[in-house]
Amino acid sequence: MSHAQVNLSRRQLLTRRKVTDRPMLPWVKEAQFTDLCTQCGECVKQCPTQIIRPSDGGFPRVDFQLGECTFCYQCAQACPEPLFLPKTQPAWQAKAVIEDSCLAKQKVDCRSCGDSCEPFAISFKLAVGTVAQPQIDMNSCTGCGACVSVCPTSAITITAT
Q1: 127: which of 29, 60, 102, 150 is 20 to 30 A away, CA to CA?
Q2: What sequence ranges are listed for the domain 4Fe-4S ferredoxin-type (predicted)?
Q3: Is 151 assigned a ligand-binding role in the annotation?
């Protein structure tokens, strides 16, 4: 089997997950984050969906496997440091990406991501000889992550753009 055919996602059980391409927190000033964050955990305590968790280095990071970001701004309001942009700014430049392990791409009908997408950024295009294929409208995608935790094959990631 060639290296290109190896499913590396299964190997992640034995290795650390790469989280550097995922957004840290909404509205955070990423350039100053590690310098100013004291790792106090106030953002973790205040998150109503409980998706903010300490990462490997102890800094808070959103974990979309636990749920979605509602963009409530409570993490920013709870933070005692000047880490966050005003709520009037975009929360982040992050979008959903659907990988090839998606059931629909494997010719199995599944629409769980589209059903959970509140802004209706994920639609399904009918295709001849296969099941409807997911498509993401990048202009509508907020990067909330609602589609991530409901995906049965973990084929969706939220990636900083």
Answers
A1: 150
A2: 28-57, 58-89, 132-161
A3: yes
